[in-house]
């Protein structure tokens, strides 16, 4: 039996794993933090914040889409993300009173992204009740 809370049996697992492990070269250099693309990290971060800050089934009825991603010469990141809602009711829940809920979510996401990328991030979240394929895209390719 193993209990991480009471530190019972965890040393047995550690010993077993150390016995079974073999030295090998690293897959990535020490400078690489992840093999995920930056814009995918952004989308995952925003998804997780939506799950944290929206009630009940609301986050499951959203689709997050990267509309614009650019790194400036100064190293700042400018991002526009579309939040597609499948109904006007869901859109109102996401927006909150006078847009206060989505502003708070965007502010929180922006702070998380600054911590992740260690640079200034400027995030704009646009909420729409239009299906994803009917929204006019600002760019075809991410930079």
UniProtKB/TrEMBL annotation:
Occurrences of domain KH type-2 (ranges): 57-129
Any Pfam family matching the protein: KH_2
GO cellular component, one term: mitochondrial matrix
InterPro entries from the UniProt entry: GTPase_Era-like, KH_dom-like_a/b, KH_dom_type_2, KH_sf_prok-type
Alphabetical UniProt keywords: RNA-binding
Keyword Cytoplasm among UniProt keywords: no
GO biological process: ribosomal small subunit assembly
CDD domains from the UniProt entry: KH-II_Era (cd22534)
One GO molecular-function entry: GTP binding
Name by which UniProt lists this protein: KH type-2 domain-containing protein
